[in-house]
Every structure is written in C-alpha cells, then in structure tokens.
Amino acid sequence: MNVESAETQIPAQTATDRQAAARVDVIVVGAGCGGMVAVYKFREMGLRVQGFEAGGNVGGVWYWNRYPGARVDLPSIDYSFGFSTVIEQEWTWSEEFAAQPELLAYFNFVADRLDLRRHFRFETRVNSAVWDDARALWRVTSDRGDVVEAPYCVMATGPLSVPKDPEIPGLDRFRGELHRAARWPHEPVSFAGKRVGIIGTGSTGIQIVQEVGPQAGELFVFQRTPSFTMPMRNRKLTPDYVAEVKRHYAGLRQAARNSPNGGVRPSSTRAFFSVSPEQRRGLLEDAWKQGGLSVLGTFADLLVNEEANEQVAEFVRAKIDDVVTDPVVADKLKPRGYPIFARRPCLDSSYYETFNLPNVHLVDCLTDEIVEITERGVRTRSGEIELDMLILATGYDGLTGALLAFDVVGRGGVRVNDKWKEGARSYLGLMMAGFPNLFMTTGPNGPAALANIIRISEHDVDWIAALINHMADNRLATVEPTAKAEDDWMEIVRAMAGRTLVSKAKTWYVGANVKDKPLGLTLFTGGFPKYVEYCAAAATDGYRNFVFGNAKRSAAA
Ligand code: NA7
C-alpha cells in the first residue's frame, strides 16, 4: 500500500490537467461528520486521502440547514466527536441543545484545529464512482472535471443529504420567495410583515414554525401528518457543568457506546405494565419535566408493546390541550393513526404556544388537501391562500437517496441502483457484495437514523480502518462481503424490524415519503451496542464473511 505524508496531497486541478487521473489511497465522499472522521483517521494512518464535498465547506447537514430555529435534538455534549481529546478539551458548548450556527462553528473549529479542510475539494459534486476490476481501483469523477483513482472509496454521504420537494403541481409557478429548509440562503431572510406559508411539520417544520410564527405578518402552517413533539427544555451550560463534563468525557463516551441510542440520555429496562398506573403517570410526568427525549427512555418496551405505546401517545396528546387554547386547533394538532416514536420524535420550545398567536393559522391538509401551488400561493380544496413566501420543510430522500443520486458502479457493471431496486441491502450497512473496497459510513442497513450519528460514524470509520490495515498487513488488494453474509445480515435486519413498531408509520425510515421507493424498514433496530458487537464479530477469524483478492493483481500494492 502506498503510504506517503499528508503533504503529498494532490494539488487543486486546473482545466488542463483535469482529464489525467490523480491517484490517492482513499477517496472520501462527503465532508459531514462521517467524512471528517474518515479523512482524519486515514491521514493518521499515513494514507493519501482525497475528499469531495458538494457544499462550500465542512459540516454536512449543518452546512446546508441554516433555516431559522435549526437545532440538534441530542445533547451537544453527546453530539460531538470523541476521537480527539484535543477537540473535547478545547471546544466549549454553550447550550444543552446547540443551534445550527454553533454546530457549524464546531465543525469548522474541528476542521481548522485538525487541518482537515485541505483534504477536501468543496463545491464539487461526485458524478460517478466506477470500479475498475482489472486494476482494483475506484475511479471517481466530479462535476468539475476531476478524475481521481484509489483502491478504496468511502461513501460518507449521510442519511439525510438529498432534500425532497413535495409532489405538488405548480411549485415552479410560485412568484413569491421560495425557500427550502435544507438549502436555506446564507443571507438573512426577513419575515416581518410577510404572509408566509410552510409545508411540512416534521422536526424541521416544527423548529421553523416556532421561530417564524412570532416574526411573520401571517404564518400558514400546512400540516398533513401531525408529529409528536415534546419539550426540549434547552438550557445554557454553566462553566462548572462544562468543566465537569470535560473531566469525564472518556466515561461519557463509553456510556454512550453502551447505550442503545449511542447517547447518554436516560433509558430503562422497566416494562410499561410492570408498574402501577400511578407510578407510570408519575414517571411520565417526571420525564416530561426533564425534557429532551426522556419520555422515550421511561420504559423499555415502548417500541414493541402497542398498548403501552398508545398509552404514552395519549399522555403526550393530552399535553396539547394544556397549551393550545382553541380546542379545534388542539385536536387537529394531535397525532393519530401511528405509534409514538415510530416517526422521529420531535423536540420543541414553543411549538404549540405558537398556534395561540393570532397571526398563526393551521391548515389541516388531511381534511383540506393541497391541490396545487399557484403563482400567488397555495391552493387547497377550500380555496387559494395568498403568500409572499413559501417554505418547504418536506423532508429528504433518506438513507439511500445520496448513493442513488449518482452512478456507483461495481464489479461487472452492476449499479447500486440495480442492487437496491427492491430496497437497500448491504452487509452491516458498511459494505456490499459486488462492490469491492467500497465502504459506507452510517449506511442504510446499520442503526443510522436510530442512534447518535456521530458515534456511528466514528465506529464505522474505525471498523473500515481496521479492515484496511488488515489488508495492508496481509498484502490483500480487494475485499467484499460474501453474498451469503449479506443475505444473512438482511435477514437479521428484517426479523428485528418486524418486531418493532418503527415500521408502522409512513416515514422516511421506511421510504414511504418518496414516490415509487421500495417500502420497508431496512435499518438495524437492535440498538447501537448490538450493532457494534455484530461488526466486531465480522472482523474476527480473518474476516471470514469476506472474500479477499490477492495483492499481485492489484495496481494498488
Ligand atoms: P420529515 O420528518 O420527513 O417531515 C417532512 C414533512 O413534510 C412531513 O410533515 C410531511 O408530511 C410533509 N410533507 C411532505 N410532502 C408533503 C405534501 N405533499 N403535502 C403536505 N405535507 C407534505 O422531514 P424533516 O426535515 O422534518 O425531518 C427529517 C429528519 O431530520 C428528522 O427525522 C430528524 O432526524 C432530523 P407527511 O408526514 O408525509 O404526511
């Protein structure tokens, strides 16, 4: 394997040299948290790394999602890198749940401090990644004319990087300001005195509504499926608290890795019906007061026991009546027809209070469906609502969208598009049979959306790095999982998915939000520690579930 110092990075290409393929050891696609960990780790291993990123800088979703009110829904302390004690000690979080500007500042701080930026080509979108079997190389091309080859390619493209417009006719006709939450302008946007409409009431829509409602002239919230949302109860972190955390980061990271969600929030082994109704009520009220995702952690069986789940759902629904003064609006805001927590639970600070403002109007698209977007606004069955601004918070082509958006071609010309025709399939969410030396971080058959994405990214990169080291030590050139290993993994994933209520809601988790996307829960629902266990087991006995190719036939050795 070629090992050179980081200083030998390929220089920025000019128009004349773009056609000649540059050569590195690893190509990393994406400069979100997965891509950042990956370039750091591979550089530390002495590998030459070339990263590509469509955005103008590091940060992934936090680079793109600059919409008003954007905020992480896991504690910042938890939603931060654990691979560098320097970063842990030098960075100080100001709030329990950081807002987007602070998160983006954090990712930039990490990039500066660890000198990661020079490994990426920004504002450069990968067009294709094609496996050259004869030379055992991935050949990656970009929309700027780059051609780079490497024996390894890591897709750190993230589960939520392809925003999805709603399938409503007339979107291009709208003459007012049109903003997409996930492509929010870098310049300030004013809502004052404007008639603003927002489509979508998932985590994103909820954060925007509570922020924009008090600022807009009028705000029309187009809600199709109400979400369950709970109080975030965000707070400033005191210097004493931060100092304490910094002393105990190692233990906190360990605890996070051992918890099902890869985070330090509370979880329980208690079954819902194992305690009396009064105790249940007390525990739920305590969790409600505590805020964040505490309610989810109150009982162990909320995602498997339908009756327990419904009782918690009813507890949360009743809270809406405590806040929203108009009983008709309160009722329309109540989520029904799917289990609580089967959609990503949302956290808010004043979402329901916003509907008490006289300028904020709920449009219930279940009873008054959107028919079209017009030049002047949104037409529902009952009439046209004129708007100065329309905001789309309509979600993402999640989990698979990013890898299907460009040409990823494996052995024998097989495309990921073909392989995933009936749904995402891979071994451990990390590798695919037929796609040698291609890795994914936070892939669609791992715990991606269901556990802390930073912990998963770090784990995945470590796992990939260990395999690359194993190959270097043994002079192996190619690796891919056996078809059987992949089949067996997908069976494990399917069996687990069948036992959880997560598959019982129409969400991006199951592909229900994208037309013609194969339906089904392909995420690993067994919890982060179990996932780590499976991955560790796969690395034992000389990686017995993988097929290796000899170094002799490789141009990479
Ligand atoms: P989500 O959770 O997928 O929410 C998208 C919202 O957009 C949801 O309320 C959808 O309603 C709504 N939507 C989509 N298309 C339409 C149309 N045509 N008409 C009306 N409403 C529509 O995306 P978010 O960005 O909020 O959150 C994504 C993740 O980011 C979240 O899970 C966290 O992990 C962070 P629907 O449910 O389809 O009826």
Overview of this protein structure:
- The protein has helices at residues 33-44, 61-64, 85-90, 100-113, 203-212, 239-247, 249-257, 277-290, 306-323, 327-332, 351-354, 401-404, 416-419, 453-473, 483-499, 528-538; strands at residues 22-23, 26-29, 49-52, 120-121, 126-132, 137-142, 147-150, 152-155, 177-180, 195-199, 218-223, 229-231, 346-348, 360-364, 370-373, 377-380, 383-386, 389-392, 407-409, 438-440, 476-481, 546-550.
- The protein is α/β, with parallel strands linked by helices.
- It folds into 2 domains: 22-159 and 398-554, FAD/NAD(P)-binding domain, CATH 3.50.50; 171-231 and 266-392, 3-Layer(bba) Sandwich (FAD/NAD(P)-binding domain), CATH 3.50.50.60.
- The strands form 6 sheets. The protein has a 5-stranded mixed beta sheet with strand order 1-7-6-5-19, with no helix packed on it. A 5-stranded parallel beta sheet has the order 4-3-2-8-20, with helices on one face.
- Strand 5 (126-132) and strand 6 form a beta hairpin.
- The protein is globular and about 70 Å long.
- Bound molecules: ligand NA7.
- Ligand NA7 binds next to helix 5.
* Helical residue percent band: 25-40%
Rg computed from alpha carbons, rounded to a whole number of angstroms: 24 Å
For the secondary structure, the number of strands is 22
- The strand order across the widest sheet is 1-7-6-5-19
Low-pLDDT ranges: 1-18, 553-557
Corresponding CATH superfamily of the largest domain = FAD/NAD(P)-binding domain
Sheet having the most strands = 5 strands, mixed
- The number of helical segments is 16
Number of domains: 2
CATH architecture identity of the largest domain: 3-Layer(bba) Sandwich
Query: What portion of residues belong to β-strands?
Result: 15-25%
* Span of the ends, CA to CA: 5 Å
Mean pLDDT across every amino acid position? 94
CATH class of the largest domain: Alpha Beta
